[in-house]
Task: structure prediction
Amino acid sequence: MSNKRVVVALGRSAFGKNLPEQQHGVTIAASAIADLIQMKYQVVITHSNGPQVGMIHTAMNEFSQRHEGYTPAPMSVCNAMSQGYIGYDLQNAIRTELLNRGIYKPVCTIITQVKVDPFDRAFNKPIKSIGRILNDAEAEEEKKKGNFVTKEEDGWRRIIASPAPIEVYELDSIRMLADAGHVVIAAGGGGIPVLEQGTRLKGASAVIEKDAVAAKLAHELDADVLLFLTSDEQITIHKGTDEERKLGHIHLDEAFQIIDSGLLSQNDLSPKLSAAAQFVSNGPNRIAISTKLDKAKEGIREKVGTFVEA
Result:
């Protein structure tokens, strides 16, 4: 039986787009996590928050427009709210699943902050859409505030930066709890991006690529496995062409070649494969796995999925 540590990164599709879908999604995720725990893995979980943080951001800003005396919520606050909102459902679902299997393990969620560089070039070239559709007048107001917007089919949307993660501030707490046998949910949505201002941490108007934070967290915790659970059993290149190929076991060198070739879209699978390669290259005897959420057990046994190894 294994005593290895795995960092599980739950993908964007895990929790759906609304509360009922999320509550259904966490039960599926909880079953996958419980399977790993029964296999004696030490489990730390991180997750996407894409639809959820967008809903929170939209709701808070719409509310402030309709009620005098209220102000819009900054992106960092919306991110923190999404970590608590998803963590609440997920930790309870995991606890229930474990107890139903006769297993008692504490499960907790840590609101996690991640340091970013204020001079990161990403702040000059934002790529992540956030919030509701804006009309022309609202888009102009955002521009006057110094914010970036982009034209879409139905109007405009605000876009924000996606800087690289530098440091996970709550890492010592995450490690201590994991070492004590707790199931830890941390760095949801890539963590809350913050800037150091003396002794104060100030939220940045940004979102961090969740896969990059998963790789950093796995590295800092000296995990044996980084497990991405997504909507696909394997990563596919040349998708929809005669050269379509599903990636099985690939060496680290091949992973870097695929990344450099641009065969994977920047906003989809490229960050995931990049994070997998980074994690594997930064330590010995590591493996990164990407497979479907309901195939976690088969994936960890290297039966189904894409596997990046040195």
